[in-house]
Amino acid sequence: MSTVILFEYPLNEKVRSWLRMEYLLLQLSGSQPVNDPVAALSFFRSIADLLDIFDRGDMRADLVKELERRQQKLESWLNVSGVDVALVSELQQTLKHHSAEMMTVPRMGQQLREDRFISQVRQRLSIPGGCCSFDLPTLQIWLHLPEDVRQQQVDEWCRTLLPLKESLLLVLDLIRQSGTFQTKMSLNGFYQDNAEDADILRLKIRAEDALYPQISGHKNRYAIRFMPVDSEGGQIPERLEFELACC
Question: Distance (Å, rounded) from C-alpha 176 to C-alpha 246?
Fold first, then answer.
């Protein structure tokens, strides 16, 4: 059976940040349980990277606006013949709930930013090897706490991100579901089309093709150039079939 690789490309800066946050939140979950130095560094580095993204803009305001925009979009669907009104209404209520929850939480990541232990680790992460035992003895002590005590603290830290995580995953899921995959054909490794105010391009490529996409574009237009993984011996077929969803 052929292995298919999925690539996603954001068509605006807002979604670019959202996809990065989603990636880091998945890393955060994947590094648990935090029971050794390797898992600990992965966990705290994901926390630090998230805080860096939060510092670049008002993520909460952007998500709240998107949740409200999705509610308004669903409102128009209620008057369309054949639409499952109960399902649309339920999704509207879910969006409304997450929007209200996001409005009540403090500044995104504020509790993590004010945590003294996280701040100590975060400062050392920028130094190569800066989290070793002689540089950061508090981390060494923390790693030797009873596992249930350590995990309880990790859970408390992650709980502060739960409203963000739930809202973000819901928004990205709705964006992804707005587009369907269609079979496309590139000529000599190149393909371009109109984006029609889209947020994300999603591409499916067969692993055996040994190609990857280089994408440039914005919400109205995009271009895809397929490049060989082996830059010296790889070849680009004259015609390449792939799947594309413009969401």
Answer: 9
